[in-house]
User: Fold these one by one.
Assistant:
Number 1:
Amino acid sequence: MRILRILRNYFFYCGIEKDEYNALKKDAYVSNFVIWRILHFLMAAIFGALFVSSCLNELLKQNQMFYLGAFVYSIIAIVLFFILRKDSLLAQFVIYLSITVLFLFGCFITQNKPDIPAATFFVLLLVTPMFMIDKPFFMAIELSAASTLFAVWMYKVKPYDVWMMDFVNVITYSIIGIVLNIIANSVRIKEFILTREINIQKDLDDLTGLKNKGALTREINDFLSDPLTDKGIMFMLDIDRFKSINDTYGHDIGDRVIAQLGTFLGKTFVNHEITGRFGGDEFIVFIKDNDNLDTVNNIAEEIIQGASENVVLPKPEEKISISIGVAIYRGDEKNYSEIFKKADVALYLAKADDKRRFHIFK
């Protein structure tokens, strides 16, 4: 059973478990998108050159309309690749369609010289799968369909002895192409896993496990730069009299307080919020696509109450308190720095107000 599970994972999930593959699928789609956007420029150049040559060469002239159609298709695909989302299923469909066009090209090239064993088609069977990251199952279907079409088509075109040689080769190279696709997919997917682990480690704060300053800055900037977003709330918070905690109990206890607060925030904000430690005892929570004042009040009260209950000092009767500065984003700020300054001003005002522990920038 273990062997069957391993084979299943390689054939359907590039050698990893299903959940791992689904987590990395969008990264794979983006990689395909980038590679094939470049390859479509190459396809357009090749088919354009072949069409021009077919106007001058009798041998190529019989495929003239295919070259023209493939050239036009390549141009349309290039345009689509500047419109579609990089991780969209439609983009992946266009790629498979382009692979089909290449296989048809191989068939037409072989048809031009029926007395000679095929070469271009078999090269495409081996090379094309190396440029596509997806479930190897899908590429197996693509290669099998192309090989079947080739064998049936060439049976009517080629002498029987040449066709028999091609028939054996098409089966052999289809199997090799599928195996190469499985190997290439598993290697590249594992590269994605390693890259993701490195990026996660680079973006995490060692003490709390939340995002660090660099990750906070980058992700909030990405959100603010999206023209489709114009709502957000930044909460900037720190621990009141944190220096006194360090002086009284020592830095080990101070670090434990920060770690406990980080754990509480990490468990509280588990959806699409951007949560991290800015530095020292300062934390950032950024709520996306919301600018409701009731939400501001509820979240601020939840943080203040939750921090007091979840962070434990050596003397249980002592409780920490939190001050929070709030900046509401409504499409005006263009980068992290601008909204951070407003939240920082609000935090300063909150720390100066003994009655209300959070303040909204106005």
Number 2:
Amino acid sequence: MEIIYDIHDWKEEAVVATIGFFDGVHSGHRFLLQEMRNPAKERNLPSAVITFPEHPRVVLHSDYQPKLLNSFDEKIDLLSKTDIDYIIVMDFTPELAALTAREFITDILSCRWRVGTLLIGYDHRFGYQRAEGFEQYVIYGRERGMEVIKASSYSDEWMAVSSSTIRCLIENGDMATASYLLGYNYRLKGHVVGGRQVGRLMGFPTANIAVDEKFKVVPRNGSYAVWIVVDGKKYKGMLYIGSRPTIASDDSLSIEVNIFDFSGNIYDEPIIVEFVDFIREDVKFDSLDKLKEQMEADKQYALSKLTDQAASG
């Protein structure tokens, strides 16, 4: 696996490639990349994914705020774990967006990156205003000696798999289904910041998290069973997202995690949270004692879910 950022580092004379933003690198994306292996093997050519560091709509509309399943670094890490040979990172610019599909295939894919075979996602469109489709891509590719192939459609047995579907599931707190479609536990990466330390007084010390990627999709308010990775070690825990209505008078959002069987000062340290399952909604309790009682129950539920996942591999 090699990551290419600069055209001057590109040495291949021909390549089988596909193109897209690949947010989430979910099971549908991996199906597409797996399918790309066949023409690459048949033609004895390397395979490549062409992707972008920023969401194209951010470049075209500066006020657009995407909801991302991955940061760029997370996406590259997930793509690098597939069997493709190259990841080509191409800046999406207004000039690129203004190219027609014919110009993009001719000037960028053929002349610049020397794509010999292009695999198109079954519902993917590109070029100015995405005005043309697969039939036109085949014609434009043929003009350059490029074979354009449409990928097979992919869906789970009972649900369509797409980045937008997964975002919706996460925003509704259905982490189990979201992770199933992703093929891995959904993650938030961040740093530990100072908090009010109320949880410590109740016997549930929490680490408050500031998420690194500002456009990352944050699950709905509530409590979750999670895995936590700190300093390379993985722990069981439960995470809370909400405005802390029992103990706070403002509406500021808090993301805080209670790490089971852990002690130590991790302020300012990087932290990764992997969501396993939703526990309960965010509610206001009549007293701190009632809240503590519920948190005890939450912990037992979280332990059960995490133990089950660990046992299932």
Number 3:
Amino acid sequence: MSIFRKISKMLEREHYDKKLYQLLNMDKYKSLSYVVQDLGEGMAVINESMCGWWKPRYLLNHNTECAYEFIDDNQRLLTVTKDDIDWESLKNLPENAVATARKLSFQFPSFIRSFENGVAEVSWQLNPDGQYYMDDDGYGMTGDEEVEIYGFIDQNAKVVVKFRDIDECDDELDMMRKEAEQIVKQ
């Protein structure tokens, strides 16, 4: 692809991101189906009610007046690719959890956390614990264990530290955050 074609594609994308930002600031996205949540540092997420859960549908960057569609209406990640996943860290996870990652499915409760120093933690649940399947009377609960992986995004919704399975200690998550902050600082 020529350099001119690449520049043209970049300009088209930037135009789209700005138009999406303008659209998402309309009254429709301040309705009952959507909730805007401030993430700090001039960032916000528009959560949409999907299948009984609030899902991070759009990421807003008020600093650049751009918006990014984080997941589509089928709860599939749009700004995360298979290359943004540390597959080696997932090798000991249950196959159904790995299959969810392969499909880039964001169907279970998952979140974009607050922005600090230009990056935000994203927790991506690949498999919920058994209570997720339980009805109001307590029936349907399974023996499933919750499986969650973590990654970090920048203010343009790009993954800067790959999603990976981590130990339940905060040290690894802190190290990932520091790595992400160093990357966006450069």
Number 4:
Amino acid sequence: MAVTAVKSPYLRWLATALAGSETSCLDGAPGGENIVLGYATGYDVADVAIFVRSLRSHYKGPVALVVDNNPELRAFLFAHDIEAVDEPKVCGKGWLPNAVVSRFAGFDALLRERPWVRHAFLTDVRDVVFQGDPFVEPLERLEFFAECEKPLASHAFNMKYLRAVAGDCLAQVVADKACICVGTVMGQREDLMRFCRLILSLGAIPRSEIGGAFGADQATCNLAVHLGLLESTVKPNHSRVATLGLVERSQLKLDGVRIVNPDGTDSPVVHQYDRHADLAQTMWETWAPNYQPKVRRAPRDFRSRILRMYQSIRRRTVELR
């Protein structure tokens, strides 16, 4: 029986994204510095001001953000001693995955170029505010953070992409596990590089473009952790990171400008604070009073709807062998 190679746009992109990764030294002497890494492509100063100013009020170490060629934004970052980085050349040409997926190829490349790093915090940018030094607590191995107390099975979005990436059976295997948010991850440089490559590789399971879709990053992260494919710790919500998107507002308190967790503690990093209008307003007034709050809405015109439908069908269409 003839055997032919599996083909998909995602696999072609992945080969380009991982090219050269075998030359990086994962077992060399560890560096000695921490770093915060984030992707801020498509953003302007108003989008990152809360992140930047709150972070710099608590943490003075290295920070690098991947940004577009926006002179005003780059000047703002320079003024706050933050490195503005061009997007690493890992994307190739033609079809590209969603940015939430491709950023992990970028994170791998950025860490590969910085052997002096010991620990790194890979984080979302637009909806993150800092209430302390993210590295204040000791770190032993990769840390992931649950976004709520309920398991994956209770979240339709996560289960949708788990099934799309890995099928019904594997999705059910991890359905009773913690719902991990891939938007904030912390660990040693070498462990994070392995993690980035692993979730990108897991995205190649389907014979379609779904591995590069929005939501696939969340699915592959949960698979990697809950199937025991890497050594890690899953921290509960409201620990080093508090993710508020699925937390009832009535469970949270606002003490001045500090967001207080249901147990009375406060976390150094708060993610998805903007899901609660009054918290978002306080953060804007505190950290970005000279900017207008921005509301992001997807275009709803006929052309954009047809484009989204086309992209959705294409992602789910299995290519011929």
